[in-house]
Amino acid sequence: MRFRKQRGPALSLALACHPVPTAAMTVAVTGAAALSGRSGPECLLVAAAVLTGQLTIGWINDVVDRERDRRVGRPDKPVALGWVEPGTVTFAVAVAVLLVIPLSLSNGTAAGLAHLAAVLAAWLYDLYLKQTVLSWLPFAVGFGLVPAFLSYGGLGGGLHGAPPTLTMTALAALLGVGLHFLAALPDLVEDNETGVRNLPLRIALRTGAPRLLWISTAYTAVVAVAIVIAALTVGLRR
After folding, report:
1. What pLDDT was estimated at residue 183?
2. How far apart are the two ends of the chain, measured CA to CA in Å?
3. Residue 136's closest CA among 204, 184, 169?
């Protein structure tokens, strides 16, 4: 997403949350909840929890990266462009955190804790791990916890459901790693200029970005197909 005309604070907040991946993650997890047999109200609760968590992840990312984004002249970063104050975004994060905790736990205690742990993993990526060779780890952990969020989920607090299958957990974690590479590839030049030495950049410097793109795309597609097959055979819950 690229934009140049200055926006107001409210729209700038919306643009700073990384709206495309935020929406994609919310729709994907909600769709998975529906396919796993969750009721309409439960799916709405899943969507609310995931959306709120994703908002915090996107906002923290833009606040933390504002100096790097400004240095490379990113035209699609409202915080770096000065359209919205970092303090305003930080306040929005605080409000969203106050919402995501009860929303997550309203899906069930175990499910809620799994979702909050996934959000925490993404925060650690934003705050530090994205600059290191361990940049893949929060994605593996975060996506690996999604099956637990779905399999333990129910309406209201308490214990619901059953543990996820190890197959679905492992495949979800592997999918997260693939998506990390695909998400990082468009920013490799900027990351190299600003010293963000994540794992995709380190590998791309050895293999070349085009080759890494093909490998990452093929890997992610294979894992996605494996998840569909596992869902139809092994299932989500043990």
Report:
1. 95
2. 41
3. 184
- Which token pair is 159? 């214990």
User: Phi-psi category of 37—alpha, beta or left, where left has phi over 0 and alpha has psi -120 to 50?
Assistant: left
Q: pLDDT by residue (tens digit) across 156-201? A: 777 788 899 999 999 999 999 999 999 999 999 888 888 889 999 9
What average pLDDT does the segment 202-225 reach?
96
The answer to whether residues 134 and 199 touch, using CB atoms and an 8 Å cutoff, is yes
Q: Which two tokens stand for residue 230?
A: 């596992």
